[in-house]
Amino acid sequence: MNKVGAHAATDITGFGLLGHASNVAIMSGVDVVIDTMPVIPGTLNLATFFGHRLSEGMGAETAGGMLVFLQPSVVDDFHSILRNAGLPSWTVGKALKPKGAPKARLAKGVQFVETEFL
Q1: pLDDT tens digits for 38-53?
Q2: How far apart, in whole angstroms, are the C-alpha atoms of residue 29 and residue 40?
Q3: Domain holding 101: CATH number?
Q4: Does 89 fall in a domain?
Q5: Which of 15, 24, 100, 103 is the most exposed place for a label (fewest CB within 10 A)?
Q6: Residue 59: pLDDT above 80?
C-alpha cells in the first residue's frame, strides 16, 4: 500500500464491506460507491437463505480482506503488485465528492462476482 500511496485502508470484519466503507467515507469526507463484491461460490444463496444481509453489503465477516483507497492512476499497479505476490485483488468501487453528508452505498445493480480465490 505504501508503494502506491494508499489514501486509506481498513480490514473488512464485523461491520461488512458497506459498514467499513461507511466509516472511511465519514472520516475522509467522501461518498463511497460499491459496484462489485467478490464472494465465495454459493455464499450469496446461503446468506439469503439464513437471513443474513450480505446482498446489502452487511455481511459479518470475521476474516475479510482489505479495503484500500487509491488514486485511479495507481490501481493497475497495485493489482499487479498483489497478483505478482500470488494475492488476489479486485476493484470494488470508487470514492466520489460527497453530495451532502459523506456516506457509502451499494450501486444499483451491484455485481456479485463468485470466485474461488479470495
Answers
A1: 888 998 899 889 988 8
A2: 31
A3: 3.90.650.10
A4: yes
A5: 100
A6: no
Would you state the cell numbers that stand for residue 79, as one nine-digit string?
Answer: 493489482
On whether the CB atoms of residues 31 and 69 are closer than 8 A, the answer is no
Give the side-chain half-sphere CA count within 13 A for 80. 7
Which residue segment(s) compose the domain that 79 sits in? Answer: 8-108
Residue 48 vs residues 51, 54, 59, 85, 109: alpha-carbon distances, Å: 5, 8, 11, 34, 17
Helix (H) or strand (E) holding 23: helix 16-28
Q: Residue range 91-114: average pLDDT? A: 95
pLDDT band for position 63 (cuts 50, 70, 90): low
Residue in 44, 57, 29 with CA at minimum distance from that of residue 115:
44
CA distance 10 to 26: 13
Kindly tell me if the per-residue pLDDT of 32 is higher than 90: yes
